[in-house]
Design brief:
The protein is an alpha+beta fold. It is built from 23 helices and 23 strands. The strands form five sheets. Strands 15-19-20-18-17-16 form a six-stranded mixed beta sheet. The longest helix has 29 residues. The radius of gyration is 35 Å and the shape is flat. It comes from Sulfuricurvum kujiense (strain ATCC BAA-921 / DSM 16994 / JCM 11577 / YK-1). It catalyses: ATP + protein L-histidine = ADP + protein N-phospho-L-histidine.
Length: 703
């Protein structure tokens, strides 16, 4: 990848961040359109986006953002109250910016449908606003004044340009000392350079930062009369810069690496006088004569450069791929440390210094692991901010008044999980608004509620997991109708004794939703099977709580990270297995009286009124056993699955610990009952159980 391609990739990433922030800030501004400090912040983001977009050839985005910037600039400078219709246009413009960015990245020839309409609306708005101000302003100065001013700078003298260049070179020679170089730089920027984000002053500033002396000479020959002048075009086809500096020519070239080759040239001036042919009429514009230290201070507007450098070094961008590699390496380090700490041969060495060293190593390893894990943890605030836009748009489309409550925005979650949470959250929120809340305010009033509905988005920690919940105060779920629809669809037979959570979980089965379901069941099954699948890929689960007439809560329970799992280690038939603690309810040794065996149905245990099927791991994996022990002689681990609770029979509970998840080979990957593996401190390999696959959905009753 070339340097320009690398910078373009950085721009695309930064542009995405700017657009995401615009999406959030524009909603905050819509709520308080008199917050002109926020409008200034939005303007700065749009201004940055415009310059960068044009610089990298995204001209369609640059054109739209350019006109959008004019509108924002007008309102932020005049502080005029924004009409509702115009505020809606501004909000919609941010949507168009997002869509145009996608078109530019994918090099799509067609623009979004709203592009022309929105752009025309912006142009009409700014024309109407600026049109009024032009009429009330004083008449413009005569065009001839511009021509006369140019004449005063000697534009009619054909030798002026080269004469000024020669004088500058001679001046530099007088100040030249050992280790200093004199360069003659010619800039011939293309007419569209301003749209690409480049102007002559930028390069003068960059060169001045490390210059001993610098002088620039412009060519005004091609500047048109005022009637034909456009501030978007570059009419200065040539500019000369004479530079005295200690920098090498390669360091000078770095300042122009984003220009086309034909737009600049650099020549080293030797001690002998330089011979050159006069070319164009010119005028001197700017002279800077500072030491490098002074130039640095003036370029930063009086701010201490050491402070700037310290601020620049306080944060750094890291490729997530490199972060993942670091995380994997730390996982290997943890395994190696555990192996040393639990090695029997090392334990037999009764040496206090070795014991202290191993203990110190353990503490350092744990600290490194915690720090590296924290690098991947980011606040869920940005994801919640995106959901505010979803709530706004869905509210407008459905015509329902509602209020969004956001709690726990500072809760941190693994960065790799953040990206996968947006789609499930969007789907659940849309369902909560469209189908969870009552149809209108009148229906809510009849139910004894306020006309304005409430949606609550919350994140919090619970028992070593992250919980993200979406709650509404709507109609709730009608259990009887859910059961009836599930029987009609063949999802259940009707003979099952299901708990409330199992009944609510039926709405997430594929094929549950139909047009009838939308009218009878508030449509809560629409696409929720996709949501369930997405959460399960993150090794999480969805819990549904609902009270008819009061509302519903969807809770996504997720692990803290995808790379490390908190598990319960169990032994069965001489093998070690890991059960994710997220699924474990309790473990117990049953009394003989509560264990039952049904013909062709298997073994069951009665636990607080529920009959739980007993799953023997030795049977699941065909493990050789010397004798078949009875359940009351073993230990049962009660776990929660999507189909309800089951009891896994094991010989012994080994303990609980965090393990680094390792992918399985192709042969073991086919076993749906296994979700991964882990290397224990002893060096042994333990398999991680996928408890949902140990028993099919509502197994044994209608399968």
């Amino acid at each position: 990848m070339t340097k320009q391609e690398q910078v373009k990739a950085i721009f695309i990433e930064e542009a995405g961040e700017i657009i995401e922030k615009l999406d959030v800030d524009i909603l905050r501004f819509e709520e308080n359109s008199t917050d002109f400090d926020l409008l200034n912040e939005i303007f700065r983001g749009v201004h940055t986006l415009k310059g960068n977009a044009n610089a990298f050839g995204f001209t369609r985005l640059g054109e739209f953002v350019h006109h959008f910037e004019d509108v924002l600039d007008y309102y932020r400078s005049t502080k005029e109250e924004i009409e509702i219709i115009h505020l809606e246009l501004i909000v919609n413009s941010v949507d168009v910016i997002k869509e145009v960015m996608v078109c530019e990245l994918d090099a799509l020839p067609d623009l979004p449908e709203d592009y022309e309409q929105c752009l025309e609306g912006i142009k009409v708005l700014i024309a109407s606003k600026k049109g009024g101000s032009v009429q009330s302003s004083a008449p413009a100065e005569p065009v001839s004044a511009f021509a006369d001013l140019a004449a005063e700078f000697g534009l009619e003298c054909p030798d002026q340009y080269e004469n000024m260049i020669t004088q500058s070179i001679e001046m530099m020679r007088l100040s030249q000392q050992e280790g200093m170089h004199i360069y003659r730089i010619e800039l011939t920027l293309d007419p569209d350079s301003y749209k690409r984000g480049f102007d002559h002053q930028i390069f003068i500033g960059l060169l001045a930062e490390k210059a001993v002396l610098i002088e620039s000479v412009f060519n005004f020959e091609s500047v048109p009369v005022m009637e034909n002048f456009s501030c978007e075009e570059n009419y200065l086809p040539k500019m000369g810069i004479i530079l005295l500096t200690t920098q090498s020519i390669s360091e000078i070239e770095e300042n122009f690496e984003f220009l086309f080759d034909h737009e600049y040239s650099i020549r080293v001036i030797e001690n002998a006088a330089e011979n050159s042919v006069p070319e164009t009429v010119t005028a001197p514009i700017e002279t800077v004569a500072d030491t490098p230290k002074t130039a640095s201070k003036t370029s930063s507007a009086g701010m201490d450069t050491s402070t700037l450098n310290a601020a620049a070094k306080s944060t750094i961008r890291i490729d997530t791929f490199k972060l993942d590699e670091l995380f994997d390496s730390v996982g290997e380090l943890v395994i190696a440390q555990n192996f040393i700490a639990q090695n029997e041969k090392i334990r037999l060495i009764e040496d206090e210094s070795i014991s202290r060293t191993i203990e110190t190593l353990s503490k350092i390893t744990k600290r490194i692991q915690d720090r590296v894990m924290s690098l991947r943890m980011v606040a869920i605030r940005d994801t919640f901010d995106k959901m505010k836009r979803v709530v706004r748009d869905t509210s407008k489309k459905t015509g329902k008044e509602l209020h969004l409550n956001v709690l726990g925005e500072e809760t941190e979650i693994d960065k790799t999980m953040i990206d996968s949470l947006s789609d499930p959250l969007i789907h659940i929120i849309r369902n909560a608004i469209d189908h969870g809340l009552e149809a209108d305010g009148e229906e809510r009033l009849k139910a004894g509620k306020k006309t304005e509905g409430n949606i609550t988005l919350r994140a919090y920690h619970k028992s070593g997991s992250i919980v993200i919940s979406v709650s509404d105060d709507g109609r709730g779920i009608n259990k009887e109708k859910v059961l009836q629809k599930a029987i009609e669809r063949g999802i259940i037979t009707g003979d099952e004794n299901l708990t409330d959570s199992q009944i609510f979980g039926l709405i997430m089965q594929p094929g549950f939703s139909t047009a009838d379901a939308i009218s009878d069941l508030s449509g809560r099954g629409v696409g929720l099977d996709v949501v369930k699948t997405s959460i399960e890929k993150l090794r999480g689960k969805i819990e549904i709580e609902s009270q008819e007439g009061e509302g519903t809560t969807f809770s996504m329970v997720l692990p803290l990270t995808l790379a490390i799992i908190d598990g319960m280690l169990v032994e069965a038939a001489g093998e070690i297995y890991i059960i994710p603690t997220l699924s474990v309810v309790e473990s117990f040794r049953p009394e003989q009286e509560i264990v039952h065996a049904l013909k062709e149905k298997g073994e069951f245990v009665s636990l607080r009124g529920q009959h739980l099927p007993i799953i023997r791991l030795s049977d699941v994996f065909n493990l050789p056993t010397t004798e078949r022990i009875e359940p009351w002689d073993g230990i049962l681990v009660c776990v929660e699955t999507e189909a309800g609770r089951i009891a896994i029979m094991v010989d012994e509970l080994v303990g609980r610990q965090q393990v680094v998840i390792k992918p399985l080979g192709k042969s073991l990957a086919k076993l749906k009952e296994i979700s991964g593996g882990a290397i224990l401190g002893s060096g042994d390999i333990a398999l991680i159980l996928n408890v949902d696959a140990l028993r099919p959905v509502i197994e044994g009753t209608h399968a």
